[in-house]
Design goal:
Elements lengths: L6 E4 L7 H4 L8 H13 L2 H10 L9 E7 L2 H13 L4 E7 L4 E2 L2 H4 L6 E8 L2 E2 L3 H4 L8 E5 L1 E2 L10 E2 L8 E5 L9 E2 L5 E3 L1
Parallel strand pairs: 1-2, 2-3, 3-5, 4-6, 5-7, 6-8, 7-10, 9-11, 10-12
Helix pairs in contact: 2-3, 3-4
Length: about 190
């Protein structure tokens, strides 16, 4: 059943138990179900989300994907790549990792992404170089970033311009470190929080 919904909210995950879940995936063959169920019950929440994404049909779009997880940067990157493959329109992620991580590049180049919210609980994340950032996010309406680390990235101070974010209406930056001055030249932006 999970693999058919356009809106997926995994902010409070309860991994399915064997009782009662079998009826909800009647379209999935029993062999596929057994493999799916075995992986879900033995893995954590992020693995469950990964399984749900992998069982979605190729052209089944995702309108909204929300999740909160403690995971590695490579696992976070894989989840976001999987969502982008399904043309996710809104991606809301709250993550804690063991180390600083780099902003997931697959989100930057997504043509379908309209709303992107990334909150790092600990320890924070870095943006890629401005040359990469300025070539993406052409269709983004809302961007919310928390725990952004901008030390030693002076070129990113001028990132928020109309050429980089031509459709951006809402921008929220919370808990950013390493920047004293940030230039924001977005005429269509209606809401800015920092």
């Amino acid at each position: 059943m999970w693999h058919t919904f356009p809106d997926l909210d995994f902010t409070t995950i309860n991994v399915p138990s064997s009782s009662g879940y079998n009826n909800s995936i009647s379209k999935v063959s029993s062999n596929v179900y057994k493999k799916f169920h075995a992986n879900c019950t033995s893995a954590g929440g992020a693995d469950f989300i990964d399984q749900v994404l992998s069982f979605r049909e190729k052209n089944s779009g995702i309108r909204v994907l929300r999740f909160r997880a403690n995971l590695s940067f490579s696992h976070l990157n894989a989840l976001i790549r999987g969502a982008v493959k399904h043309n996710v329109q809104e991606l809301d992620v709250e993550v804690a990792t063991n180390d600083y991580f780099n902003f997931p590049r697959s989100a930057i180049n997504s043509d379908s992404l309209r709303v992107f919210k990334l909150k790092s609980k600990y320890p924070g994340f870095r943006l890629p170089p401005s040359s990469i950032m300025k070539n993406g996010f052409k269709n983004l309406f809302t961007l919310s970033l928390s725990c952004l680390i901008m030390y030693e990235q002076p070129s990113l101070r001028d990132l928020f311009t109309e050429t980089s974010f031509p459709l951006l209406k809402k921008l929220s930056l919370d808990g950013c470190t390493g920047v004293n001055l940030l230039t924001c030249k977005l005429s269509c932006t209606r809401e800015f929080n920092s």
